Amino acid sequence: MRVTMIGGGYVGLVSGACFASIGADVTIVETDPARIGALRKGMLPIYEAGLDDLVAENLAAGRLRFTDSIQAVAGANIVFLAVGTPASRGDGHADLSYLFDAAEQVAPCLTGPTVLVTKSTVPVGTGRRLGALMAERRPDLCICVAANPEFLREGNAIEDFLHPDRIIIGTSSEAARSALAALYEPLTHTGGPLINTQVETAELIKYAANAFLALKISFINEIADLCEKLDANVDDTVIGLGLDRRIGPRFLQPGPGFGGSCFPKDTQALVRIAQDAGAPARLVETVVAVNDARKAAMAGRVITAFGGSVRGRRITILGLTFKPGTDDVRESPAITIIHRLVEEGAIVSAYDPMGINHARFQLPSRTRLCESAGAALEGADAVVIVTEWTEFRALSIAELRANMRGRLIIDLRNILDAETFRAAGFNYRGIGRPSSVCEAQEEPYMPLRARAAQ
User: Fold this and answer.
1) Which of 109, 144, 227, 262 is catalytic?
2) Which of 165, 348, 377, 391 stands 20 to 30 A from 1 (CA)?
3) C-alpha to C-alpha distance for 70 and 21, rounded to whole angstroms
């Protein structure tokens, strides 16, 4: 099966390498000079665990290649469009200009019957527009259009691709359905569920899935705030909720709000899609507003912990990416937090295992970017944990004492044990955790997880 992937960004690169690993002959077309130059040298423009090895293996085997020529679509059985669909400035609609520019370039280069597939996240109706465009540009060819949305978590993308929860194929063409089923057969043969549906449904499933996960995140963040007011414990609350099989534990970890390349833009896009269709998505509108407010409020927590002013205070930010396992800092809460703290006069040092190079272009010039957690902690009055990287979970009392000037820890991911650090003399503040053990308790407070293990 000959596959051409238009776009060598996150989705195109991961998907292309994974398709090659299951036996397809894959060419990835990337027109950005810097990116294609790096790819040809074996240098990946993104960080994703295991991707460098997967790309190298399939390049060596001859199943994967990179080019900047759109002519690579000639003779392909399936052409995937995996270009960016960012939010338009100002209105939240998905910007489809890159997608349709790519389609316009693909059309004259096709040489035979082809399946044209949107891998990018696109608004409902995009597939039909592409079908009309292809029929107009190439009436001499049978070009079948399909939607095949990706469900790749950054940091777990290869695992998600090779062991999918579901594979969605949206098309009205039996030829397209058969071709995609054959391409995915190595995955469906081992149990990957394949769902055939119409184009519009496939397009909506992607938005609906991301919006629902974003809703879960915003929901537990609001419950965490309520826990703080009632002196309840969000950790136990999450366990109590997650054990309900109708709810499940995933995406119920409180924090500083969601970021990344998908949830912010996809929730905004779904709001606009629903408004344009005359069926407003009020819950999703609220999720967008709650998350924006959440990220803005996190810097306020730090300022409040200092009694209302951080001017002249040395504050360490640990974590710049929106989640661990990636170098993606797009819409990261850390960026919002740092801008506010610097505006308020704080002296900010920051460290992230993978995100420094991308973050430096989005941060105030006065931010001190460090090469290690220890360097960032030096002389700090407070440390704020924003991303739950594994190495931050291993922070020791001795390390903090040796490097910090102050004793304030603001743990926005609840990755440290509150009572251990409080007992060591630190002013520990988490998310949705009791400020102290209730004096009325006859026994020391013990989390549900610990009690269940007894």
Assistant:
1) 262
2) 165
3) 23
